[in-house]
Amino acid sequence: MTADDHIVFIVDDDERIREALVELLDSHGMHAIAFESACDYVSADKPDVPACLVLDIELPDINGLDLQRQIADRDHPPIVFITGHGDIPSSVRAIKHGAVDFLTKPFSDADLMAAIHAAIAQDREKRAERAEIDVMRQHYLDLTPREREVLPLVVSGLLNKQAAAELGISEVTLQIHRRNVMQKMAAASLADLVRIAERLEIPITHSRRVGGN
């Protein structure tokens, strides 16, 4: 991991903690930016790289758990909570809502680094998945209106003859559209096309699926 392919955001109102964490991460070759409040973090420009948010529970402007809730619907880095006032309900709430770890001060450098590495790996994986879906979505947008009608019929498991009848076109024309759909969606097989349709959450209006009766 190089210092320019990730970032660790630190939000803690204790300047000594911020400085110590930045120094620790720097010693491990990791890039970190520290903020003293949730507001400063939220309003800051953030590089588009895999990241982790090391977040204190007690902040001057908002509780860290409340910040977690507020940003839940946005794309945000996985969170590692740190606190000097840990309790079981808070840790359960944090983990239940997706936090990678909940560390009570004083915690070991090893535990923190392990949590940060896990968070960045998780974010890297999520970003790769989003990028893959974005490519699939662009392929879908490249389909003609008729091909977008053909796709759900094909992945529902209908025979070419049945799908053609559904659209009021000839079977030969349906086969041409089906071939174009496979090529444009970069699907290697019908099963592959079914998986792509599922990941894009394309509505299927027919119940007969591949492999069904």
Automatic annotation (TrEMBL):
Whether Cell membrane counts among this entry's keywords is no
Keywords noted in UniProt: DNA-binding, Phosphoprotein, Transcription, Transcription regulation
Q: Does the keyword Transcription regulation apply?
A: yes
The chain positions of domain HTH luxR-type read 136-201
SMART domains in UniProt: HTH_LUXR (SM00421), REC (SM00448)
For the modification 4-aspartylphosphate, the affected residues are D56
What parts of the sequence cross the membrane?
A: none
Q: Which Pfam family is one of this chain's hits?
A: Response_reg
Specify the Response regulatory domain's residue ranges.
7-120
**InterPro entries named among the record's database cross-references:** CheY-like_superfamily, Sig_transdc_resp-reg_C-effctor, Sig_transdc_resp-reg_receiver, Tscrpt_reg_LuxR_C, WH-like_DNA-bd_sf
Q: What is this protein called?
A: Response regulator
